Amino acid sequence: MGKIKILVVEDEIIIADNICDILEELGYEVLEPAVSYTEALEILQVEQPDLALLDIQLAGRRDGIDLAWKIKEDYDIPFIFLTSNADPVTVDRAKKVSPPAYLLKPFDRNDLFTSIEIALYNYSKNNTAEIAAEEAGQKEEEIILKDALFIKHKQSFQKIVFEDILFLKSEHVYVRIVLKNNKEYLIRSSLAKFIMRLPKYFFKIHRSYAVNLNQLESIGLINLKMGKHELPFGKGYRAELLKKVNTQ
Question: Where in the numbering of this chain does the HTH LytTR-type domain appear (predicted)?
Fold first, then answer.
């Protein structure tokens, strides 16, 4: 299970380093901070952060709000505005980009942690608006973004990259997630609804099982192999699986 990766964009080095230290203490993975719009884009093009903390007042022609628009258009990750300036003009500009969260300086460790959790939750909620209303209570336990799943673990979200998942198993009102490293996690959801929110390479092979086709090792007559696991086919599922594999 990977950590949530965060990019800090702040042109005051001492403040940036302090924020990074707090984030590491909270258990997040922290990238080298950026001090400008241009430097942030250079990092975004190489790294794949899960969330960005953006100081609004950046040195240079383009500020944090300009960067937020760019992130929204090209990188599809949540971001949080950091600012000591709450004047109406700045707030109005910031509102138009619809940040998942907004944090006023000075802030403490708890403020930062809460803002990150809210930003992840709000971003996921906005990206899954088509999910039925009855699932709303589950969103605080699991969040699905572009290439990863975030599971509520103790007091924070832990990251599971989709590619690390071998298969999913239905257990009544829960889904068991089995990873390549053989770790397992349980979330509250039906298998059918959960698969609808995942990439297309997750495929149902049985009423109780769905597999990551990218991790498929072999297909037998009555089962298939995923790591050390042998999973059964449901009636009629094998033919559909072979069609799916042949069209990938």
Answer: 164-247
